[in-house]
Write a structure and sequence with these properties.
32% strand; elongated; 7 helices; 244 residues; alpha+beta; 24% helix
């Protein structure tokens, strides 16, 4: 049965694997910073209480959830976070009663219910901003290394093959093949990055790489941890590959 209330996305970014899903959920406050696995989420809007999966996002303000009937729905992450509270159903009932029309008036139309839901979302949206300063508190207990400023565009890099491994893929029956690099260095301006990783793509497999091989290539490097490995950066779509 299709859900009439859903706002289906025209396009969205699907999570590559469970690690990507967990990382994004931590950013949204849907999972704790120490979480190593995802958890069950529930949609409690429109008088419903249904299990759902977070499968991707449109942007940082719009998560995409999927119901058991495979229908997709756009939702603000903070609104979804509020729904996970055990007391959410009672609060929503109170809001609905306060907004009820006088006796003898027409029933609230579906469009008006949506407007009420939207208004509730806007109020909740302001909450993460008030909590934002707390994110910096862990640095008080332990001095952290200054965060590396990564370029947003594609750049030339060099790296040495450190390890070939696999990581679990929550969305597939097969594990993902990845390469871990060491001594990753941005050529211009010369910047030492350290360890990074990338998918072991078909293009890379053609090079028949071995541990210890030094590579020169172009690509984009982003801050994205590798599942179950202390590797903080990911190299996306390495191209123009050459063995040194």
């Amino acid at each position: 049965m299709a859900h009439a209330f859903t706002i289906e996305p025209t396009t969205y970014i699907a999570f590559e694997d469970e690690a990507a899903q967990i990382e994004k959920c931590k950013e949204w406050g849907l999972l704790s910073e120490k979480a190593a696995k995802t958890k069950a989420f529930f949609y409690k809007g429109n008088g419903m209480n249904m299990a759902c999966s977070i499968i991707g996002y449109v942007d940082n303000m719009t998560a995409i959830i999927e119901f058991d009937n495979k229908q997709l729905h756009c939702i603000h992450p903070s609104y979804l976070k509020e729904m996970q509270a055990a007391s959410y159903s009672q609060r929503l009932t109170a809001v609905t009663e306060e907004a009820a029309v006088p006796a003898g008036a027409e029933s609230v139309k579906p469009q008006e219910e949506t407007a009420l839901q939207t208004a509730n979302t806007e109020v909740i949206t302001a909450e993460p901003k008030a909590e934002a300063p707390k994110a910096a508190e862990p640095s008080k207990g332990k001095a952290k290394k200054q965060k590396l400023q990564l370029p947003e565009e594609k750049i030339k890099m060099t790296a040495i093959i450190k390890e070939f491994t696999t990581v679990p893929n929550h969305f597939s029956d097969n594990d993902d093949e990845v390469i871990i690099y060491e001594a990753v260095t941005i050529v211009d301006p010369e910047t030492e990055v350290g360890d990074a990783w990338s998918s072991h793509s078909a293009t890379l497999k053609k090079l028949e790489l071995e541990v210890g091989d030094k590579l020169t290539f172009e690509g984009k490097i982003v801050a994205k941890k590798l599942t179950k490995h202390p590797v903080p950066y990911k190299i996306n779509n390495p191209a123009k590959l050459q063995k040194a």
